[in-house]
Amino acid sequence: MVDSLSSPDGRNRAFVLDTNVLLYDPNSLNVFKEHDVYIPITVIEEVDTFKKELSETGRNARTVSRQLDALRVNGRLSEGVETMGGGNLRVCLAPDGDGLPRAFGKSTNDNLILTTVKHLHATVDDEIIFVTRDTNMRIKADALGVRAEDYENAHIDFDGEQYRGVSERAVSGEVIDAIYAKGSVAWEEGDLHANEFVMLSNEAAPSQTAMARYDKKNGRIKLVGRYKEGIWGIFARNKEQLFALDLLLDDSVNLVTIDGVAGTGKTLLAIACGLRKTADERQFRRLVVSRPIFPLGRDIGYLPGDLNDKLNPWMKPIFDNLELLLGSQDEEQGRNARAPSYQPLLDQGIIEVEPLTYIRGRSMPKQYFIVDEAQNLTPHEVKTVITRAGEGTKVILTGDPNQIDNPYVDATSNGLTYVVERFKDSAIAGHVTLRKGERSELAEQAAELL
Q1: How many CB atoms lie within 10 A of CB 343?
Q2: When comparing pLDDT for 311 and 331, which is higher?
Q3: CA 432, CA 370: separation in Å to the nearest integer?
Q4: Residue 298 — pLDDT band, cuts 50, 70, 90?
Q5: Spatial distance between the Cα atoms of 26 and 64, rounded to a whole number of angstroms
Q6: Residue-wise pLDDT tens digits, 179-215
Q7: 235-288: per-residue pLDDT in tens?
Q8: Max CA separation in the chain (angstroms)
Q9: What is the Cα–Cα distance from 318 to 48, expressed in whole angstroms?
Q10: In this predicted structure, what is the pLDDT of residue 10?
């Protein structure tokens, strides 16, 4: 996170951490290396209010508390103790009678934290930098004349633009002829990521093209299948959807990430391929579809009924996709059942739909595991999800980094973006970005114009 030990004026840098940084990344205490770190006592109070929650935030709060308690072995936190990186960590109190300007309003926890930051800025020789994920807190700190930064360790740095999984190359006509004749050709240039799709065009005749995928293990590019027979009544409507099918149906690719705007078919394609692999080919024990629970707009409060009744509104987008896929099968076979067409598969355990709340501690061998709306996960949460995968399990993450409901993440620090960047050179992972909306002409224009 830090490039140098000293600020431009020669002073050492010291960092004050906000509550949201600790709750987002409980290991943030150890990323500042040789720098001094201050934690306002109000932050400890706020962390304490979360420790009883059974959510990921609650687990992070408990982890932070345990780490701070372990540091007390090295000395008094009020006087400063040495951290793993060689820096000094200190828990500090807000000063009495040295509050904020009257314009900041009543005394809140945020204002108490800012009061502590302001006091440290005035009394400590080091350059004080306030680290917070809250944009308004950064604005307020700036108004007080204190330097404020986002928690940069949470962000993914892109070289140019975000990795989309597709590139273009101009090659000789012989290469294109060979890939159609043999199905694959050697690729020794080393300029492609693992399982990256490449649009080949003839240097001499640009109208001659081929679509291929880079096989990193064997150093070859392989022709992408056409899948003209469709998957559970679903047909690829553009080349990116064709690329997604190629990854979703390839058993050698254990992790697939698909992002794109609303209506591009991310979830529908993933579920269709999951049904093919579980219900038809029986290569996996079951199809598990899950998503984090975040409401759009104001939450409507507690819901009546048993667990299934409570989860139904949250899982409705998944059930809608299942109804579309299985409903098309009913139409083909002349059935007109009143019960949901997917109910028999749920009853048989072939399909399992559940929230991510209950994923921790599970081991999931030989399952086709789809996580929808993965952009609402933190990197720590997405690690928890992927590490549940047992032998023979395929994990698919879908989502839109531009539609985030989780207040603790953004387009460059969410779990989906994190996985895409970290796994782009892994031979067992693949990614594709879907660009064109296929839900309806209205939905596509809404995504573009609104």
Answers
A1: 13
A2: 311
A3: 15
A4: very low
A5: 5
A6: 999 999 999 887 899 999 999 999 999 999 999 999 9
A7: 999 999 999 999 999 999 999 999 998 888 898 999 999 999 998 999 999 999
A8: 81
A9: 36
A10: 57
Residues 337/330, Cβ–Cβ less than 8 Å? yes
- The residues facing 50 across adjacent strands are none
| Nearest Cα to Cα of residue 143 among 110, 182, 105, 114 | 114
Instruction: Look at 244 and 317; give whichever has higher pLDDT.
Output: 244
pLDDT for the residue 297: 37
- The first and second tokens of residue 400, run together, are 């839109």
CA distance linking residue 305 with residue 49, whole number of Å: 29
Letter for the amino acid at 299?
D
Whether 67 and 23 have beta carbons less than 8 Å apart is answered as: no
CB 233, CB 332: distance < 8 Å = yes
pLDDT band of 344, cuts 50, 70, 90:
confident
pTM here is 0.76
Spatial CA neighbour of 194 closest among 443, 433, 422: 422
